């Protein structure tokens, strides 16, 4: 019975179905084929290979049979790729929308922040919006007054608290919105990427407050983020969503490993022909077309053996002063190591670069991401980035001998320096 009282959130077999709009296939014949396939409940013959399998006729299953429970005082991280169903799940929990099937039970008042300024009225001042949010939670004016000074101090927008929030910057929005959600009397806090906006100092402040809310104040916290470092720092449990289903529910480190393994389903060949570059890539003189890794298994690269790469670069003009950066990050996205190549000669058209990388200084572990960046060298050592594409995720393994120790990445770091040399009298 006590266990039932400790449960704050119960989700049972929840499904959420959306109806899609109809887009013409381009020809009358194609539209008739698609219509006849849907009429018979068959797969659309005009659907591209690789289309999300959650598409069923004219509907899309954003969530498909999700079930879990969260107890009082738990801080649960929800992670998954874009489109996995994370935000849909939070909208169902906060009653923004209703599930198509299944039951959701919440045992306590909910303070949520699904996006910057959720629940704020732009014409009202910051102070008025605090009262509005408190009233929505069922608090009295006296209860809100008791919290007001603490909310204003934490939000760092005291000079603008009586200014309409439509004049706030996105950073001020998120500061006040988080402060309201964290300080008003609620038993459940639901946060969706709340730390994506705001400076580093305030992000650390928010993490400390959420950790305190769960561990000291006994609040239940659900936190969605793509930043694995904050998930690891804040949460004591992790739920991984993939294509609308829960694929893992348990230990945080294991959950992050499952998430990263789902992200890294790729072969040894990466094609960037249709890759959408970042907005800063205005100059298209240099473009990385594809990369092929000659190592067979990217998940278990031998530390002492080189990584061999064949890269195709397309260029409009010749240039003999091109550089290439190979950046390596750990499983939570923190930079670990970078290898640079200078003085590459590029001719107009197709260029083939055969590259060899020595990763022997890296320790056996999983590395969450890599990036290839082409840059031009200017006068005085200046560098101008021309193109940047993501590389593979990979794992490093080591063949231990009797004279070597298993490397402890968490405690000793990701880079293994050369062993110390004992000096002799001759030195």
Give structural notes.
The protein is α+β, with helices and mostly antiparallel strands and 427 residues long. It has two domains: 68-263, 3-Layer(aba) Sandwich (Rossmann fold), CATH 3.40.50.300; 269-412, abc- transporter (atp binding component) like domain (Coagulation Factor XIII, Chain A, domain 1, Distorted Sandwich), CATH 2.70.50. It is 24% helix and 33% strand. It has ten helices and 21 strands. The chain has helices spanning 2-6, 28-39, 86-93, 126-136, 141-155, 170-183, 200-215, 228-234, 252-263, 409-412; strands spanning 7-19, 55-56, 59-71, 75-79, 101-106, 110-113, 188-192, 220-224, 237-242, 245-250, 269-271, 286-293, 301-302, 307-315, 319-329, 335-346, 349-357, 365-367, 369-377, 383-390, 394-397. The strands form five sheets. Strands 6-7-8-4-9-10 form a six-stranded mixed beta sheet, with helices on both faces. It has a four-stranded antiparallel beta sheet with strand order 2-3-1-5. Helix 5 crosses helix 6. The mean pLDDT is 81.
């Amino acid at each position: 019975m006590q266990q039932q009282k400790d449960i704050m959130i119960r989700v049972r077999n929840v499904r959420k179905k959306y109806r899609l709009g109809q887009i013409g296939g381009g020809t009358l014949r194609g539209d008739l084929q698609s219509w006849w396939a849907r009429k018979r409940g068959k797969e659309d013959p005009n659907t591209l290979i690789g289309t999300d399998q959650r598409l069923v006729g004219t509907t899309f299953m954003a969530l498909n049979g999700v079930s879990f429970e969260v107890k009082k005082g738990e801080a649960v991280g929800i992670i998954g790729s874009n489109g996995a169903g994370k935000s849909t799940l939070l909208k169902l929990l906060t009653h923004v929308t209703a599930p198509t099937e299944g039951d959701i039970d919440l045992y306590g008042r909910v303070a949520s922040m699904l996006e910057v300024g959720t629940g704020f009225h732009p014409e009202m001042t910051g102070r008025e919006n605090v009262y509005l949010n408190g009233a929505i939670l069922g608090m009295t004016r006296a209860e809100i007054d008791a919290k007001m000074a603490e909310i204003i101090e934490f939000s760092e927008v005291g000079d603008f608290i009586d200014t309409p929030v439509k004049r706030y910057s996105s950073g001020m929005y998120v500061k006040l919105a988080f402060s309201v959600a964290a300080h008003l009397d609620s038993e459940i806090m639901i946060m969706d990427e709340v730390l994506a906006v705001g400076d580093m100092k305030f992000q650390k402040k928010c993490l400390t407050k959420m950790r305190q809310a769960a561990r000291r104040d006994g609040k239940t916290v659900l936190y969605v983020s793509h930043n694995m470092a904050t998930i690891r720092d804040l949460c004591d449990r992790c739920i991984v969503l993939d294509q609308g289903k829960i694929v893992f529910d348990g230990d945080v480190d294991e959950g992050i490993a499952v998430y990263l393994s789902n992200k890294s389903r790729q072969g040894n060949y990466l094609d960037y022909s249709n890759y959408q570059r970042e907005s800063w890539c205005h100059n298209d003189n240099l473009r990385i077309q594809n990369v092929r890794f000659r190592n067979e298994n990217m998940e278990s690269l031998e530390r002492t053996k080189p990584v061999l790469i064949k890269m195709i670069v397309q260029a409009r003009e010749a240039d003999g002063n091109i550089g290439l950066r190979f950046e390596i990050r750990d499983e939570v996205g923190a930079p670990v190591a970078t290898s640079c190549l200078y003085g590459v000669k590029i001719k107009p058209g197709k260029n083939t670069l055969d590259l060899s990388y020595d990763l022997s200084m890296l320790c056996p572990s999983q590395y969450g991401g890599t990036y290839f960046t082409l840059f031009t060298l200017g006068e005085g050592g200046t560098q101008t980035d021309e193109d940047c594409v993501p590389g593979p995720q990979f794992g490093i393994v080591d063949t231990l001998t009797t004279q070597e120790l298993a490397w402890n990445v968490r405690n000793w770091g990701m880079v293994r320096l050369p062993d110390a040399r004992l000096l002799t009298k001759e030195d």
